[in-house]
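Form P-L/3: holo structure prediction, ligand 6-O-phosphono-beta-D-glucopyranose.
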Amino acid sequence: MSINDMRQDVLKETGAVFFIFGATGDLAKRKLYPAFYALYKEGKLPERFAVIGLARRPKTRDQFQADLLQSIAEFARYKVKDGDEEWQKFSEHFEYMSLDINDVEGFKELRGLSERLELKFDIGGNRLFYLALAPELFGSVAQNLRQGGLLDGAGWNRLVIEKPFGYDLPSAEKLNKQICEVFKEEEVYRIDHYLGKEMVQNIEVIRFANAFFEPLWNNKYIANVQITLSETVGVEERGGYYDHSGAIRDMGQNHMLQMVTMMAMEPPSRMHPEDIRDEKVKVLRSLRVYGSPDEVRKNVVRGQYTDGVLRGKPLKAYRSEDSVNPESKTETYFGARVYVDNFRWAGVPFYIRTGKRMPVKTTEVVVEFKNMPDNVYLAQKTKLQPNLLVFRVNPLEGIYIKINAKQPGSEWMVIPVAMDFCQSCQVGLNTPEAYERLLYDAARGDSTYFTRWDEVALAWRFVDRIVGAWSEGDKDLQFYPAGSWGPEAMDRLMAEDGFHWWPINGQEESGVLWVKGQE
Ligand code: BG6
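OUTPUT (holo model):
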């Protein structure tokens, strides 16, 4: 029996109560309730479970159940019908309680409710507290959980928290201290939802399970690695939050650096959460930290979108978005040349970029291999293109490999050929959502795809130095029209090294023969 099967059994044997703080919020509606439903449909949630929705707003159980049904009908992967037997059975497990999170008495009442549900569903005292709340509230919730006696149950306690984990290293340290006064590090599950994505998890498998790649996975054979997390959306209703955060804090500190660690880490000694996270920490320790304004200027690009056009639709500038300062210097684009200064990666640039209002929504990682020497025959007619290995993470899932082959019928004419495995085309859109996986893992006690405190701290160390250099002036803020690929300065930075971004997401290059294309 695998470790995963054993973990699943533990969940089935003793079950758990899930406490959702922020039960009326967007995350709960769009992600968490649909995730519970998918896990239930797939038999991953035992009958021994209960979910308590918690928010300040008073609501009856019936109202809560109606909201639950609506959110599942709208956002879940599985269809639901009011009145069908399965839905009735599932919704039985959900309760709602209005709670003022500063009031210890309310927490004592919550403990009573939890004990009643534990009895009703024969749950062995395990409690998972999911804080879908603003981080400023984490500390007082943790304290009140303790004072309200909610941590004195017979089973395990786990705390699941959402990003952002701090605003910089000092604020993250403060937050961590507050949490650690109540919970042990191994009880804390810090969510980075990118780690729950199928293809991000697949990076490890592709790397470590294929003789093709691992022997070449180093600075002898790899020329550069390109990581793109682009979004077409602007800041929508989140201008207030985003204007204080910016792309580097919102996406760089967490999702992007996590992707770098997955690409660069050494094979772990065992497939055990702590061993895997130890390897990721080593990557973060080896990241070259840019300290001086000059180093930052040479290696980092920050941009902000101005008005522009996306697929024929005019878009307003970031500074005109709701709740954004009209003179804002906040970056909506962050790009950088990053180095992992260790034996494996010495000298290999990792180009990373993320931005709002870009032409496509995509997450993609391209590994560009070093060129073969142009030999006498081949160089005569064609300039060889480098081999590429591309991980498509989102929204398409799959990998493709670009190799060189002889053009059929020609005499030594070499053309690039792309071999394409489109996972999402095969299993459709029905792959588990990141939140399903992460909720399931937290309930089973598997912390592999959650960030440990030392990872968070090292990532802040990297980001804080860059932001510190920026605040010495805003001359380096570049502007790019909404709907474009961001500031040209990033292209120039790559051109200095003789590289360029490879086209994204199957925007196939002309002249490449696609062996098995995607739709
Ligand atoms: C979140 C950021 O963490 O990730 C958002 O706060 C961003 O600004 C989102 O839009 C992107 O996630 P995904 O899964 O849609 O790529």
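COMMENT: The mean pLDDT is 91.
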